[in-house]
Amino acid sequence: MKGKFKKVVLAYSGGLDTSVALKWLQDTYGCEVVSFTADIGQGEELEPARKKAKKLGVKEIFVDDLREEFARDFVFPMFRANAIYEGEYLLGTSIARPLIAKRQIEIARKTGADAVAHGATGKGNDQVRFELGYYALAPNIRVIAPWREWSLTSREKLLEYAEKHGIPIEGRKKSGSPYSMDANLLHISYEGRLLEDPSREPEEDMWRWTVSPERAPQRGEVAELQYERGDIVAVNGRKLSPARVLAELNRLGGKHGVGRLDLVENRYVGMKSRGCYETPGGTIMLKAHRAIESICLDREVAHLKDDLMPRYASLIYNGYWWSPERALLQTLIDASQRGVSGRVRLKLYKGSVAVVGRDSKADSLFDPGIATFEDDRGAYDQADASGFIRLNALRMRIAASRRQRRKRG
Questions:
Q1: 94-115 per-residue burial string, b: 16 or more CB within 10 A, e: under 16
Q2: What are the strands of the beta sheet with 180-183, ordered from one edge?
Q3: Fold match between 7-66+93-179 and 188-359?
Q4: In this predicted structure, what is the pLDDT of residue 173?
Q5: Catalytic residue positions, numbered
Q6: pLDDT of the residue at 168
Q7: In the chain, fewer beta carbons within 10 Å around the N or the C end?
Q8: In the prediction, which pLDDT does 392 show?
Q9: Residue boundaries of the structural domains of the chain
C-alpha cells in the first residue's frame, strides 16, 4: 500500500490510539504525516503530543489553540438549545469533533495533503462524527481510518505495539490498559477497563476534575451568572470570554462535586455503551440557562424549543453539526435568544446545583402584578377562567357523555 498517499493530516491527541496510528501510517503507507493537535482545553496533554510527534519524525506539527473558538462557536450555541442527549449526556465529546474536523481540513488544504486520518475506532461514534465533518467541508477528501484496517484489535495489542516502537503512553496501570479518555474544556469522558461492566461502580481515583460530593465543602456557594442574548458574559460580576466562563464554572463545579455522570447510552452505530463523564461547568450552564429562559421566553416558544431539542441533540451526537438541518435549527434557536438577558443565582452544594434567584430588568415576561395571590387591582379577572376551562374541557365532556349513553343503552 506504500505510495497510495503522499501526505496525511492526522487528528493527533497524543493518546494511545493516535500515537500508534501515527507510526502505523508511516509504516503502512510510507507517507508523510502531518500531526494536528487541537488545544480545546485538555491542557497538559499538548506538549507530550508535540514531543511524541517530533520523536516519530513528523516535520509539520500543528498545535492550535482553539479554546475560544470551541466555546464561542460550538459550546455556547449548543447550550442556547439546552441540548442534552437521552436525558443526561451534555455532549462534551460530540461537540468537539466538528471543530477538529474543520481545522483538519483547513490544514490539509494549507499543507497540500491528499488525505486526512483519525484514531476513532470502528465501533464508536467518533468515526462517524469526524468523517461526516470531513465530507461536508471537503467532499472529495480521502479518509484513512486505521482502526478499520489494522490488526490491532484490542487496547492490549495497541500497548504492545507502542512498547515495541518506543511510544510512551500516559496513564498505563499494572492491572491493564488505561481508561480511554477524552478531555476538552467542556468535559472529560472515561470508557474501558471496569466500566465495561455496567454493574460496577467507577473507581474514585478515576475522576480528575471533581471532588466526591461526600468530600465537598460543608457549606454551599452561590454563583451569579449574567446573560446577554442567551450567552453567559460574566461570572460573579467579572466579565469573561466564553472559554474563561467555562474554565471558571469548571473550577466552581469541580470544587463542589458537581457534574459527574455514569451513563449507558445508545451509540449511533447501534450498540449500547457505558461511559462516565465529568461536566461541572456544563451542568451549571444548563441549569442556569433554563432558569433565565423561564422568565424571558414566551410559553409557546419555550415549549417549541423543548420539542425540537431532542432532535437537535441527536444531530450533534450523531455527527451532523455541519448538516443543513442543524444550521436551520440553530437559526431558530438563536432567534429565540434575542430577548434572553439577565442574571441567575445558583447554589452549589455537594454535587447539586439549585437555582436560588433569577431576574431580567429588560426582558422578563414575569409580571408580579398579575401572578400575585394578593389583590392584583383588576389586572386579571378570575371569573374569565370559567369559560376558559369549560372550552378546554369540551372534548372530554363530549366523550364522557357518549360513554354514559352507552352504559345506559
A1: bbbbbbbbbbbbbbbeebebeb
A2: 180-183, 188-191, 272-278, 260-266
A3: no
A4: 46
A5: 17, 97, 126, 180
A6: 74
A7: C
A8: 96
A9: 7-66+93-179, 188-359
Q: Are 322 and 132 in contact (CB under 8 A)?
A: yes
pTM for the full model?
0.93
How confident is the chain (409 residues) per 10-residue block, as mean pLDDT? 88 89 94 96 81 91 97 98 98 98 98 96 95 98 96 89 83 56 94 94 95 98 98 98 98 98 96 97 98 98 98 98 98 98 98 98 91 78 93 96 90
Question: Per DSSP, what are the bridge partners of residue 392?
Answer: none
Pick from 229, 239, 234, 222: nearest CA to 362: 229
CA distance 380 to 81: 33
CATH architecture of 7-66+93-179: 3-Layer(aba) Sandwich (3.40)
Question: Cell digits for 176?
Answer: 491493564
The per-residue DSSP string of 315-344 comes to HHHHT-TTSHHHHHHHHHHHHHTTT--EEE
Residues 5 and 29 sit within 8 Å (Cβ to Cβ):
yes
∠ at Cα 126 (125, 127), nearest 5°? 95
Distances (CA, A) of 284 to 157, 196, 214, 245, 363: 40, 28, 19, 11, 22
What is the predicted pLDDT for the residue at 170?
Answer: 63
How far, in Å, CA of 58 to CA of 186, rounded?
Answer: 29
Tell me how crowded residue 8 is: count the other CB atoms within 10 A of its CB: 25
Superfamily of domain 188-359: Argininosuccinate synthetase, chain A, domain 2 (3.90.1260.10)
* β-bridge pairing 61-65 and 115-117: unpaired
CA distances, 369 to each of 179, 341, 366, 372, 377 (Å): 56, 21, 9, 6, 8
Phi, psi of 94 (to 5 degrees): -55, -45
How far lies 131's CA from each of 72, 282, 312, in Å? 23, 26, 19
Element (H, E) at 181: strand 180-183
Residue-level pLDDT at 345: 98
In the chain, the amino acid numbered 405 is: R
DSSP 74: I
Angle 320-111-168 from CA coordinates, rounded to 5°: 80
Give the span between the Cα atoms of 43 and 37, in whole angstroms.
11
